[in-house]
Amino acid sequence: MKRTTIRWVICMLTTLPIAALAQTQPDTETAAPSTSSGGLFGGSKNFRTWSIGVNGGVLVPSVFAGGSNDFSKWQLNYGYGAYVKWQLLHFMSLRADYVGGKLKADNSRELGNGEAPNSPYSSFETSLKWSGSLNAVFNLATINWLHKKSMAQLYVSLGGGLAGYSPEITTAGGITTEYKPSGVIKEFYVPIGAGVKFKLSESLNLDLGYTMHYLDGDNLDGYNKAPSKDKYAYGYAGLEFPLGSKAKPQLAWHNPPAVMYDDLVAQRDQLRLELDAEKENNAKLAASVAKLQADSDDDGVSDLFDKCPGTAKGDKVDGSGCPLPKPDTVKPVQVIITDEDRRLVRDAIANLEFATGKSDIKPSSYPSLDKVADLLKRKNLSLKLAGHTDNVGSNNNNMILSKQRAESVKSYLTGKGVNPSRIEATGYGETQPIATNKTAAGRQQNRRVEFTIY
């Protein structure tokens, strides 16, 4: 028994690579986004998980692996079945199976696989009224890294159930009797199966399978020869119908590596688009920086903001790129103010007269002022004019009058060609008297415009 079991396991393992290659076809079409197939971590809500199946085939009182039989020659008989399946994961489901049919065998083969020479019976026939089992089904070859669309899958199953049957046994003399006249025998059994399933469409699968049933008793053939355990096998072909919306794929055919691959490709493409966008933005930024840094005349101001392009090299510029005024490099000529110059100014002061209460210069003062104008132009001198009044009148009026008289002198001199920037005119009103304002002579002295050359 052990050697037979080992041979069966080795045979199953060696067929796995062939089944894996045979079950798939290359996906030449564009892969659908992972959302249409439920996604890698989207749960089972996006798939069809329930299905029903019907099948028909043959029943034999023998199995591929598991010991000897009580009769030397088993016979093929019809069998039928149905199931309801709940797909828990893409590789695992729970399946409730029902199987019925007939089992037959005899001892017509002298050197068969049983103990025919010592058996008092020539044949048996058992009606398998019903059998129900709950099985865990594992898809062995659904996952495939090379292809995305599975067309076939190899699976194995293991479970437990209860069978109800009625044997009839025939003696060597040809007498047939019921093994248990009082009713149906009920025994626990362990089903172990394997099969291959083909996906015909999203709504139909073709199921080919073989299940070995190991009974917890020796009553199936009506010949109780303990401690042997009876067994039978069911080979079938059937159709499976997925339940639910046709818009959803079947979870049993879900290929996580393919979905993972599609998701990774989508993420790669998205990252590539984002990277290309970043490269484009970086290129624009680099162009903007290059434009900002461009300085054709090398004056330290970008061409973008340079209002005076083409500045000569070495010229100092302001913030707009325009040259700053160059300092006067001509050494100033030292001007010597002589006593004669001071006398001329004193004469102008002494001869300066205004109309009473006004800033109008009397014509008698013009010759002296002309000499002062000539002096200022000739020696490029500067002049400070300070206007003063007596205390007759209000302080405010006196301040205004003193300022106006100083400005009148400045206007006269600039009219003679003196640079206005060289003359400063200020009024002090009655604030700086040089004599008493109590006498007419003192008030006359206080009504003056002082000249200061420098």
UniProtKB/TrEMBL annotation:
Membrane-topology annotation of the record: Multi-pass membrane protein
Matches recorded under CDD domains: OmpA_C-like
Coiled coil (residue ranges): 261-295
GO molecular function: calcium ion binding; porin activity
Domain of life: Bacteria
Keywords, in A-Z order: Cell outer membrane, Coiled coil, Ion transport, Membrane, Porin, Signal, Transmembrane, Transmembrane beta strand, Transport
Species for this entry: Chitinophaga cymbidii
PANTHER family associated with the record: LIPOPROTEIN YIAD-RELATED, STATOR ELEMENT OF FLAGELLAR MOTOR COMPLEX
Record's protein name: OmpA-like domain-containing protein
PROSITE patterns to which the protein is assigned, alphabetical: OMPA_2
GO biological process: monoatomic ion transport
Signal peptide: 1-22
Subcellular location: Cell outer membrane
Positions of the OmpA-like domain: 341-454
Recorded GO CC terms: cell outer membrane; pore complex
InterPro entries, per database record: Bact_OuterMem_StrucFunc (IPR050330), OMP/PagP_B-barrel (IPR011250), OMP_bac (IPR006664), OmpA-like (IPR006665), OmpA-like_sf (IPR036737), TSP_type-3_rpt (IPR028974)
Predominant localisation class: membrane
Segments passing through the bilayer: none
Gene3D superfamilies, sorted: 2.40.160.20, OmpA-like domain
